[in-house]
Write a structure and sequence with these properties.
It is built from 8 helices and no strands. The chain folds into 2 domains: 41 residues; 110 residues, no CATH class. The relative contact order is 0.12. The protein has 167 residues and is an all-alpha fold. InterPro entries: Protodermal_1.
Length: 167
């Protein structure tokens, strides 16, 4: 009987020791996975596109704006009288880059992406559009929702592809 009790006690210790080792191994694996994820994931991710050429970047980085494009410039002053007809007279470039109503709104998307495109044309060497091209394309795109949506998409692609340029 004493032998059976001794064997039973040793079996419990072995079982508990095995469970502790398994628990520690699982905890170490989880910690390693978390460290690997933290090493590759940025600290803050925008809900939509991210990068150094997107409207989200420009709307949150006041210090990065090119000097020749003041943040408080109005959209109508920069893009002309046609923009004045489509947008508020006092809509600033900073407000345009910060817009969140661009999904499903072709003109809001156009002003948002064209603002980022204009800033990229001044600040990013190798950006595919020059400032005067952007202004001309915006004026041409303001004639219809379809034209505005198409041009906004083209600027969006250029803004997202711009992240691969060397600054």
């Amino acid at each position: 009987m004493v032998t059976l009790l001794l064997v039973c006690c040793l079996s419990r210790r072995l079982l508990v020791s095995s469970l502790i080792v398994c628990f520690l191994a699982a905890a170490a694996a989880a910690a390693a996975a978390a460290a690997a994820a933290a090493a590759t994931a940025p600290g803050f991710v925008f809900a939509r596109a991210r990068g150094k050429c997107t409207p989200q970047y420009w709307s949150s980085r006041a210090e990065s704006w090119p000097k020749m494009v003041p943040q408080m410039s109005t959209v109508s002053n920069v893009f002309g009288s046609r923009a004045f007809e489509r947008f508020r007279y006092d809509l600033t470039l900073l407000e345009a880059a910060s817009r969140s109503d661009d999904l499903g709104n072709a003109f809001a998307g156009l002003v948002k992406e064209s603002t980022a495109a204009l800033l990229n044309s001044y600040a990013r060497k190798g950006y595919p559009y020059s400032a005067w091209e952007i202004k001309t394309l915006v004026i041409q795109a303001l004639v219809s929702k379809q034209a505005a949506a198409l041009q906004a998409q083209r600027f969006r692609h250029a803004n997202q592809a711009c992240n691969h340029l060397h600054f």
